[in-house]
Design goal:
The chain has ten helices and nine strands. With 299 residues, it is of the alpha/beta class. The longest helix has 15 residues. Helix 2 packs antiparallel against helix 4, helix 3 crosses helix 4 and helix 8 runs parallel beside helix 9.
Length: 299
């Protein structure tokens, strides 16, 4: 994968400096949204100061892990990674469940503590701060507060399932240096059946386009067994047409049955070499230039 622009960002050359009033305005918008939360596309509209919506997040930060991550894509490691508890999807095959989907299993952190932790990781050589989960979308309010407190001029990665609202998207604009967004399905039926979510395809298309226009974008596609024709291959075709042949894509072949995957016949077994090869060959035939694949898997 050729990532020359990423390298400039990660070297600080293209890193925008946050202005206090900009972060202040974003924080003000976040506070308003929390009174009737529509940060994700489920649009629960609950007052998170009083109760919790689908994701289970309140106004305080809950994490289930924080460490220097060296297992991400080569261009972005080492990465100072914060794993938020709670998620806007309910993927039956989630490899980090139940901690990733249940905020009650997370640890309490405040934004000042998180900022100091990021500064320390930056001083130790981390290239970026990587907000992930679970899902970071319910915690956009806390992320803005962290960045207000953080003195390190560190690139910001938003590592998300991509199922966030237009209101959340407006807050993220100008804040995020690199978006790492999942492209899980190209079928709303599959999305509802395996992740309990509606209007997935329209939402992810909008957010992928917006992320690509706003900043740098890396698309992660976990190839699911039995979902090559309905999801993986048409998703690649859409990427080629709408993001372009130079789109940065990680085509992931490491699916293994986890969590509640045994409830679905097609998810009972790991992805086959044949299915993965079919997807990789399709990417090559489409003329996509910047995709990562697992060479060892294909041997």
């Amino acid at each position: 994968m050729n990532l020359p622009i990423y390298e400039k960002i990660l070297a600080g050359q293209n890193k925008p400096s946050f202005k206090e009033f900009e972060l202040g305005n974003k924080l003000k918008k976040c506070r308003g949204l929390l009174k009737s939360c529509v940060l994700c596309q489920r649009r629960c509209q609950v007052n998170r100061y009083d109760r919790k919506g689908y994701c289970g997040a309140g106004t305080k930060m809950k994490i289930f892990g924080a460490h220097t991550h060296v297992g991400e894509e080569p261009a972005i490691v080492p990465s100072a990674t914060i794993f938020f508890s709670g998620c806007t999807l309910q993927c039956y095959y989630c490899q980090n469940a139940p901690e990733s989907i249940n905020p009650e299993l997370g640890m309490k952190w405040n934004e000042g503590e998180a900022a100091r932790w990021i500064e320390k990781r930056f001083s130790e050589g981390c290239k970026n701060v990587n907000f992930v989960g679970g899902e970071p979308t319910p915690y956009i309010y806390n992320i803005v507060k962290i960045l207000q407190n953080c003195k390190a001029n560190i690139p910001v990665l938003f590592n998300s399932n991509g199922y966030y609202s237009k209101e959340a998207n407006e807050i993220l604009k100008g804040l995020i240096d690199i978006y790492l967004l999942d492209f899980k399905y190209f079928s709303d039926e599959c999305a509802k059946r395996l992740s309990g979510v509606k209007d997935y395809v329209k939402t992810i298309k909008q957010n992928l386009k917006s992320a690509n226009d706003d900043s740098e974008l890396l698309i992660r596609m976990l190839v699911l067994p039995g979902h090559v024709k309905c999801c993986a291959k048409p998703a690649l075709e859409w990427i080629r047409e709408n993001i372009g042949k130079n789109a940065n894509i990680n085509i992931m072949g490491q699916y293994r049955p986890c969590f509640k995957a045994k409830e679905f016949d097609e998810l009972l077994y790991p992805l086959s070499k044949e299915e993965y090869s079919e997807v990789i060959n399709h990417a090559e035939n489409l003329g996509l230039k910047n995709y990562i694949y697992q060479e060892i898997f294909l041997m």
